[in-house]
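lol ok so funny story. i was supposed to be doing the assay writeup but got distracted and ended up predicting the structure for this chain instead. priorities right. anyway since i did it might as well share w the group, maybe its usefull for someone
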Amino acid sequence: MNISDMRRVILGAPIPTTEAAHQRLSKAKALAVFSSDALSSTAYATEAILLVLIAAGTGSLGVSMWIALGIAALLLIVAFSYYQTIHAYPNGGGAYIVSKDNLGKMPGLVAASSLLIDYILTVAVSVSAGVAALTSAFHGLDPLRIEIALVIVIFITVMNLRGVKESGTFFAIPTYAFVVGIMTMIVIGVAKVIMGDVTPVQPPDAETLAEATTASGGLTLFLVLRAYAGGCTALTGVEAISNGIPAFRSPESRNAGQTLLIMVALLTTMFLGITFLANQYDVVAVEGSEQTVVAQIAEAVLGENIAFYYLQLATLLILSLAANTAFADFPRLASLIARDRYLPRQLTNLGDRLVFSNGIISLAVLASALIVIFGAEEHNLLPLYAVGVFLSFTLSQTGMVVHWLKERHEEGFTPDWEWRFHIGLNAFGAFCTFIVLIILAVTKFVEGAWIVTVLIPMLVFLFIRIHKHYDKVAASLTLDGLQPGHIRELFPDQGHVPVVVLANSLNRCSLQAIEYAVRFSDNVRVCAIEVEPDAVIRLKQKWQEWHLNVPLDVVPSPYRAIGAPLIEYLHKRDIENPQGDPTTVVLPEFVVSTWWEKLLHNQTSTAIRDALYRDQIARGRGRPVINVPYRIGDELYEPIAVEPLKKGVTGKLRPPTTD
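and the output, tada:
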């Protein structure tokens, strides 16, 4: 079995571009894909509160319920703010889009960097928390935490590379299993509380409690704020649905909004229920405990039986697979940023299964690195986690306030109560999340939040450098300043060898290659492989505008591949040539100055040469391939063979053909 066959077995057969609409998600599957991160946070949010409060002694743990109510109120504010965003931006209104459109480029880039860091941390935290749930039930696996976490990341990566629809079907099982398990535990636990049948959890030994009690001044405001900040991890993932609206079935915004409301109802109930039971059963959380808070509650409520192990397994699965939310959103967000030329263009490419494969793989690598560095301990990662989340919350809602204010300038606008409610809710949400952001930055700074405050500007700087490079490339390739025209017939020494110039856009680089080809042959055609339909549409428009008297052949590529459709096209050209000469390929290729600039471009030329080489080996016949380099940054190429059209003259226009 060769590599290609193994790829098909693991990832499945390629999906044609025409099937994209059928790969969208129903509300039931979308809830599993986009809400697993938010719902899974209930497994560790209460624990994050208790781990802080224990510093003031066990008597302070009762405050956790009031803190949880405050977090639940903030959750409702943020969720309903995003509900408005979903309907205001039906094509996807994540913090990046909203901030960029309403606040400007720099706030948009800050939001983008915050979200990207958040998604990477989501994978690392979720998988590490899942491993913690597993080791709570099977203590002997604790030395293998990192290895288990990496295996889980690889598994989620493969499932996402298989496609959104297929991964949604698979991930729905653990999501709903976890919801059923937690809700069952809450119902039984509350019933026991009402009936007075509560057996408190056995507390840690006195020495452990003494080590955990470190606040000499008792319960202080600073300690309460730290606990509140820790519990705000329950809000992570709330924005995911607004980022993934295009993945929903039609009507997209309506289905996304309804899914958001369902998620908020479940999340609020589960978070408050777990915190309530933790108080009623006197659960104590200390660093290094063998059991998580949820495991302690489950054992006290359900007993150490099959129901307990079911919940532990469901928790393991949801926490591990909650990373799927990031795998659904990170590649989509990265593709939007790359389309705006702030990240490598390769991130916009759809893979065989209609997913952004390069983004999925990049996320897996970065998250795996964090897991190794932090030893798969989610509590070591949580201080880094929430700062980026609330920064994106604040920017998104501030952007929405500006969005509503812009409506005042529309014709016929009247400031009715609905408009005032929209702007008031987003303004209040922005204020609340900003306050929490300040609390997080202050209380978590020395614990690791400073790393995020350094990474965000570094990432913004990287965005700007990449954008400047793409601007430089665009300035070198643009046709601005040139007059459209057709190719002159001024070359008496032309031969008749069939020549194909490969081009997916008309620019100075491809124009130079066309001019070179017509110098030695009068049998020249231009071939474009239809990998990106929008790019081909733009090419056809340019071709019509320039009236180049060279045939343009558009070769369909339903599976977005380049090599196979190109080879098939060349074989047809070979057959059509009565002399039997192999068709010569002219390959325009622009050259950049540094190694890192090369990484920013699709290695299309390399892929084409590789396909041609394999074809030559398979057929036992050579094919001339001519590279025409165009150096970016040098003096702009000025075409010699292009004769500008006279006013009112259209030239010999040959319309594009589809091969």
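The longest strand covers residues 584-591. Confidence is low (pLDDT under 50) at residues 648-655.
back to the writeup now i swear
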